C-alpha cells in the first residue's frame, strides 16, 4: 500500500483492504507475551498458534514477520483492550501504537478488535477441557488470540457471505 497499511476498527474497511481469501494472524498482546492464532484462507476457523515472549519491538517484528512468511498471512487482527464501558485507556493506546509499528513493518492491513471477554472465554474453554492450571497459564494467550481472531472472521464472513 503506497500510503502505508490500513489500521482500522471497522470490519468492512478491513475486508475491503484484503484479497478475497488468505490466512490471517490474530494477536493477543500481553505485557510479557504475545499470543498468536491463525485462520484458514477461507476465514472459517481460528486456531491457537505459538505464544511468543514479548521483547523489544525489533525482536517481536522479526518473530512475527517469520510467521507471516511461513503462513502466507494477508492481514493481522490485534486485540484492542477496551474498558468495560467501551472507552479506551492506556493499554488501548499501547495496542494502537503497536499496531501502527507492525502495520508499517509488515505492510499488511491491521484490524483492531474488541478483546474484552477473550481471556475469560479462552480460560473457560481450557477449563472445560480439564486442563491443569499450569498448562492453562502456558496456553491462555494463544487461545485468547484465537477467540479474538474467530470473532473478527465471523464478522468478516457474516458481512460478505
Detailed description of the structure:
The chain is α/β, with parallel strands linked by helices and 161 residues long. It has a single domain, classed as 2-Layer Sandwich (Nucleotidyltransferase, domain 5). Helices cover 47% and strands 23% of the residues. It contains five helices and six strands, in the order βαβββαβαβαα. The protein has a six-stranded mixed beta sheet with strand order 1-6-5-2-3-4, sandwiched between helices. Strand 5, helix 3 and strand 6 (110-114) form a beta-alpha-beta unit. The protein is globular and about 40 Å long.
- Radius of gyration, CA atoms, in whole angstroms: 15 Å
E-strand count: 6
Q: If helices are DSSP runs of H or I spanning 4 or more residues, what is the number of helices?
A: 5
Would you identify the CATH H-level superfamily?
A: YqgF/RNase H-like domain
Structural class label: alpha/beta
Number of domains: 1
List the helices and strands and how they pair.
Layout: E1 7-8, H1 11-17, E2 23-29, E3 33-39, E4 46-53, H2 57-71, E5 73-80, H3 90-106, E6 110-114, H4 118-128, H5 133-158
Parallel strand pairs: 1-6, 2-5, 5-6
Antiparallel strand pairs: 2-3, 3-4
Helix pairs in contact: 2-3, 4-5
